[in-house]
Amino acid sequence: NHSYAISIGVEMDLQKIRSTPSYIDNAEVGRTYAVVARAACDLAAYIRELGYPARAHHSPNEMVCHVPIAVRAGLGELGRNGILVSDRFGPRLRLATVTTDLPLAIDSPVRLGVDAFCAICKKCAANCPGRAIQQEQKTVYKGVEKWKIDQVACVRFWTANPEKWASCDTCIKDCPWSKPDV
Fold this sequence. Notes:
Strand order of the largest sheet: 1-5-2
Number of helices: 7
Largest sheet: 3 strands, antiparallel
């Protein structure tokens, strides 16, 4: 019920993400979620100390969809893989959000060219081991034109070999936007 949202992104280490699928990249994802959760909780606590209501939303304690908020806040654009793609880190970010009634200046979405790039690139879709990312054109899903992710196929791959991994970041690893200075 808050009027404003603050989007927070924390970079995941590229070297660890390159090991996907493995418990090494799984640990990096978990570490990054913990760091961004701490930042969100600290910020929400600070805002409350200023006398305004605030709530930290982070995995797994969230009541918002982080990617649309991050897009509207100008942190990046939505990529083919269904993840926020930032100009500096590509999709190697984990997100949290703080909602509040503290009056804030509102940022605007950015245009990085991700949409046009993803329409041509398709590396994440071609290399997805679960075949969860569309190669075709965008479709309207829940009122938003985007490339629909087959979440069932994605999670099915995540759980396919629990002795070796518990999730997958192939779409993040293979995205050219993930590489430094691309």
